[in-house]
Amino acid sequence: MSQQLNYKLQGAGHTIVLIHGLFGNLDNLGLLARDLVNDYQVLSIDLRNHGLSFHSATHDYQSMAQDVIALLEHLSLDRYTLIGHSMGGKVAMKIASLATSKVEKLVVLDMAPVHYQVRRHDNVFAGLHAVEQQKQTSRKQALDVLAQHIELDGVRQFLSKSLYKDGDHLAWRFNVTSLFANYTNILAWEAVEPTPISTLFVKGADSDYLQAEHQSQIQAQFPNAKAHVIANTGHWLHAEKPAEVLRVIRRFLA
């Protein structure tokens, strides 16, 4: 029996499932949720090893997708639209391949259905491990430790949202040990069978996660896909340009 994911269900109407990326939680797509909840039922989830969901030594797209499908079945939701960012985009694509008949539409924020070769998070893991080892007692101390490893303040602030008080020191809500051990699984991707679902890939113009060279792999797996580029924004496009991202999503949903 699999464990159930932590989730938040709001609003009424057609269900939109919001799936966060690596090191995130269900609040990450909160800017989208707060807008979409006016017209839709919005299901925000913590993926395994993140937020308040269970920790597991297993962390791969098959398992993460099955977790979400099990939750959707538990909630008796049999028709829904998926919106996923980064790692969550891959989870959404995997769900679309496993539960094709139930997925109305699919929105993938700055992620391609490809196996990435570059390890982008080694400095992040170094910072996370340092905070764990040094057992900091204040958020400021933890941010100072992260700053020794992570250059971008925005990334440090984002990560610090997952700090919580564990006894007399701060700890991470996400499962650093498992995510580090499974990092090759997070980069990986096994191509899925062609899926007819209407799909939108939204790219941050300044991000290099979605590339022109990925187009053939996207078309092979999601033949009914189109793309939209948001100018002057990077990988965190939904946080940097929420109004524009929402406009694009709403136009696609309508």
| H and E string | EEHEHEHEHHHEEHHEHEHH
Instruction: Kindly report the oligomeric state of this protein.
Output: single chain
Number of strands: 9
Count of helical regions: 11
Q: Do you know the CATH architecture of the largest domain? A: 3-Layer(aba) Sandwich
CATH class of the largest domain: Alpha Beta
Distance between the termini: 38 Å
Task: Note down, in words, how this protein is organized.
Pfam families: Abhydrolase_1. With 254 residues, the chain is α/β, with parallel strands linked by helices. It has eleven helices and nine strands. The protein has helices spanning 30-36, 61-74, 87-98, 122-134, 139-147, 153-160, 176-181, 183-187, 215-221, 237-240, 242-253; strands at 7-11, 15-19, 41-45, 80-85, 103-109, 163-166, 169-172, 198-204, 225-230. Strands 1-3-2-4-5-8-9 form a seven-stranded mixed beta sheet, sandwiched between helices. Helix 4 packs across helix 5 (139-147). It starts with 6 loop residues before the first strand and ends with a helix. The mean pLDDT is 94.
